[in-house]
Fold this protein.
Amino acid sequence: MGRWRWRSAGGTVVRVVVVWAVSTLTMLALAGLLPDFRLQSADGDSITRTAVTAAWGAGAFGLLGALVWPVVVRALLLVPALVLGLLVFFLNGSLLLLALWLIPDGRGVANPETAVVVAAVMSAVASATSTALAVRDDDAYRRRLSRLADRRRRGVRELAGGGDAPGTVFVQLDGVGHAVLLRAAESGVMPTVASWLGATHRLTPWRTDWSSQTGASQLGILHGSNHDVPAFRWYEKDTRQIVVSNRPASAAELQRRAVERTADGGLLTVDGASRGNLFSGGADQLALVLSVAARRGRANRSRAGYFAYFSDPANAVRTAVSFVAEVCREIGQSVRARVRRDEPRVGRGGLYPFIRAFATVVERDVVVAAVIGDMLAGRTAVYADLVAYDEVAHHSGPHSRDAQDVLERLDRSIALLAKAAEHAPRPYRIVLLSDHGQSPGSTFEGAYGLTLRDLVRAGCGLPVSRRAVRTRSGAEARDAARDAVRTALHRGPAAGGEEDVPATGPDPIVLASGNLALVSFPDVPHRMSREEIDRRHPALLSTLADHPGVGFLLVRSEEHGSLVLGGDGAAQPVAALKDGDGGPLEVFGPGAADAVRRTDSFPHVADIMVNSMFDPRTGVVHAFEEQIGSHGGLGGEQSLPFLLSPLELSPPVAPGETLAGAEQVHRVLRRWLREGQGPQIPLEPAHARPAGGRPRRWRPARPQGTGAGGALGHRTGGVEE
């Protein structure tokens, strides 16, 4: 053991000396190439003296990077992520100026702009050299990767077991549908995934709920319940609040409700880590988790996950360079799309290039690094979300070349995780999955010249934007509203001029979630019935149901119960809906009836639920938002995500059965975790935890035969202590 320690220490010293020497040569080369950077006195120095100066500067810069940089990054955790990424160059350049100032006799001089360039180059060269030296040294490679994530160990790890028991890493490829993954693997876009298919992993499609979006799907997957999540955003009449899934306060509330409903902390309560997700899943180790972003305290801040990554200046520089390159790539792709006059197309200006770069570079790098650190630390369960594809597909289209480029880079990230797993202290099973797919199509406004909000207001007889009035759809909607109002008032066609309409009260709230929209009347405290809506706005329901861009509506009837409405007066009771019985839902395929019926039972379902049209021949839907790749409702590839699981795990469902709904996916993932760890016993009963408190802990139970204590239930196979 002593000899091994001396050999390891000697190897470390050698690597430090080599990196220092390479950094010194790099600094000398840059001093010769850049006119505003010098390492000599005004009178000139000998080659030896200049080399010593460069060695001083390189050593000081490396030491400052190791000691000062982590402190600076931790102090900047309050800075927004996008700003932090842009500050990387400035901070690194400042450290170089400080290092030059520390050189004796003031021989190191550079202007600020040149210092930024020199610092970036030296960090990149030092990082590359250090990595190259560690390639043949597994211990060094593991140590380097381990620095990328927080390695604090909790007492629960000992309870969770270890040794040869496998850990599980769930990697969510946000927005990647089953069909998209298959095409990417078959075409060579994702070679790593292609090598897994059929050889080491099985591919299983699954069907989302009506609300096919990350908020509903991930809440169900991580916490076992997405009850009362009708869309990505919705209006709650009892609280008079608009809930938006990707707002920290809303995410925290949705997580609280799910934990309260299930009386369970979540999928990751046993030694788990949650990375880049909307919800924590009950994990202790968190990075970029939205539901805890609003909490006070450094340990609970979602930005705390940045520290482990950006504390390494080489990582910071590499990610910052990639960030700038991605901004330039998006601008170039957007310009080419406009020049080619690609259709459909949406605006991609403003802050979008920076938002895309954050999703495809910063978020990806930080999350992947955190997952690698989790594996090297031997954590039991990790769930990570990579959002890059989803963000690009919204604006470029799910089948675009831009989106394929992102899939290629995601495949490389998956390969990196698989490589890191080889150096982990325990075996790992890597499961890939998605939360939904995306369906292509022009926006509702692009196809018909008016927004859904304008259509709703026209159906209510309210003023609409001038642009909407000038369109054919807007004029038709306005005329239909007038005729319906006259009919309701027993009046004939007007000779001319505007007719009086009934008082409408407060304006309706129209909220879009992809190709699903929710219409609520805030002045009515309960869910309005079809009859109430018809009395107040006689033309509204027919205006919406008969529009070619609308697939169907869901409303409640006092006489017939909840109804699905389609064009030409079609109406079907929700209670009697069945797949294959015709009607407005027929085109949306298997599972649509069950999905609509389940959402209809939610307390916060809107007064009117609107799903866009769907063309089964082309797969096209029309988003009610500015998206040419969308998800959120029923129709096409958005409703069919995937689950790619190792063959050593039990099949997700029996042959011939369909995996339907995020809550069922949660149960499958629970089962897989139990297969690796055995039955779990809660350390703290739910009733002992105060409302809003920390999720319940679990520990593995020893097998106890087939009795009650050893059976595998929905959540546990043991008893509460």
